[in-house]
Amino acid sequence: MRVAVIGAGSFGTALAKVLAENGHEVVLWCHRAERAREIAERRENSLYLPGIVLPEPLTATADLSEAVHRAEMVVVAVPSHVVREVMVQVRACLSDIPWVVSAAKGVEEDSLLRMSEVLAEVLGPGHVGRIAVLSGPSFAKEVAAGMPTAVTAASCNPSAAEAVQKAFQASTFRVYTHDDVVGVEIGGAAKNVIAIAAGVSDGLGLGHSSRAALITRGVAEIARLVARLGGDARTVSGLSGVGDLVLTCTGDLSRNRTLGLRLGRGEKLTDILGSMHMVAEGVRNSVSISQLARKAGVEMPITEQVRLLLHEEKPPLQVLGDLLRRQAKPEFWS
């Protein structure tokens, strides 16, 4: 089919490569014209995926209308905080009702909507059953290099999930289907915040036991939020939950873990962000997910402490101390 991938960052480019290698006609939309020219002339996105050769069936453009023209599937791979802005422009260019795949992980600020909810609101009622989300443990560099990866495609409409599965499934890219959109999206968004905490712990030199505790308790607070929002807490034990969380908290390619690591070593947030050309989604989502948790009446202590660390300059050691001094509880509570 003809597929438009909106966003030429590392993950968008990697997904476009998978789709093109599967035989689809893929157009990759780049925010900058020079990025589109580089891909067309050199078959490489040197800023985000240096050294990865992009297949010939993949074309690139900085023109949104050209990208989505006749598209049967639109893959949204821009940072979560610009999804609404970009998709308003996409909507104006659509001449049909394609499948829409969210590969963006986050909760929108102010509205506190998940990305699939933002897409449904922007694109209108006719698209609701055409929207799916793609999530799971998948570093872009490894996906693009053809390393074995497994992810989940979730939708309220089984046909949408199956369409995404069919489009993306490859010998090294395995796609499962799921109907719990809430669980898949919250897991994908919240894990970035927990990964910052894990990075801080590593940066402070607190050891593997500390990191394991943060990951495990992170799973618990994500599951509480998923259940309160109407999702299935069991989803958090799957690819989009534990799978993505473990990868992001432990992998050296994780932007959020790296940011936390540098904070733990004493660097300032502004300096870290200024040196990064890719977005660490956990910075913004520490605020939106904390707000969503408070609105839902769910306690998420790690997420809240990360918010205080990032946005109120709370010292890392004080964050750790306050987490450890919390009132004693049973391990499993709701």
Description:
It is a single chain. The chain is α/β, with parallel strands linked by helices and 334 residues long. It is built from 15 helices and eight strands. It has helices at residues 10-21, 33-42, 64-68, 83-93, 115-123, 140-144, 158-168, 181-203, 208-228, 239-250, 255-264, 269-275, 282-296, 301-311, 316-324; strands spanning 2-6, 25-29, 58-61, 73-76, 99-102, 131-135, 149-154, 173-178. It starts with a strand and ends in a 10-residue tail after the last helix.
Give short descriptive properties of this protein.
single chain, 334 residues, alpha/beta, eight-stranded mixed beta sheet, 15 helices, 8 strands, globular
Our count of helices gives 15
If strands are numbered along the chain, what order do they take across the biggest sheet?
3-2-1-4-5-6-7-8
Main structural class: alpha/beta
Number of strands: 8
Topology pattern, helix = H, strand = E: EHEHEHEHEHEHEHEHHHHHHHH
Query: Helical amount among residues, as a percent range?
Result: 40-55%
* Poorly predicted parts: none
Q: Report how far apart the termini are.
A: 45 Å
Query: What proportion of the residues form beta strands (DSSP E)?
Result: 5-15%
Q: Radius of gyration, Cα only, in angstroms?
A: 19 Å
Largest sheet: 8 strands, mixed
Estimate the mean pLDDT confidence.
96
**What is the overall shape?**
globular
